[in-house]
Design brief:
Strand content: 25-35%
Order of helices and strands: HEEEE
Helix content: under 10%
Strand order of the largest sheet: 1-4-3-2
Number of strands: 4
Number of helices: 1
Structural class: mainly beta
Shape: flat
């Protein structure tokens, strides 16, 4: 290398707020998690069932390199399963507000 910059990738960008969007209920989001929808972050020690201890609404960028100008609202669930901590995430928007391609949340 000769010390010159060859390439730069900028991952920070401006995000646009959505004017209005309908959120699904937390109960509906929990049903989706029970049906296997969403993303689960668990250790190998976690079992098939768990206890949700905390729920929060957050905003998520689907992919660092995604050019989508919007942050998506998601519910983040935290809890325990057989003594291990878990985190799960599911979209908070009603289904008619988004389309999932190439996988799940």
């Amino acid at each position: 290398m000769d010390g010159r910059i060859k390439n730069v990738v900028k991952i920070q960008r401006e995000y646009k707020p959505l004017a209005e969007y309908p959120l699904q209920s937390i109960e509906k989001a929990i049903r989706k998690l029970k049906d296997g929808e969403g993303v689960f972050y668990v250790s190998d020690n976690a079992g098939q069932k768990g206890i949700i201890e905390n729920v929060k609404l957050a905003y998520y960028n689907t992919d660092v390199m995604d050019d989508c100008p919007y942050l998506l609202p998601v519910y983040i669930f935290e809890g325990t399963s057989e003594g291990s901590q878990f985190t799960a995430m599911v979209y908070a928007l009603e289904e008619d507000c988004y389309t999932v391609t190439g996988g799940t949340t």
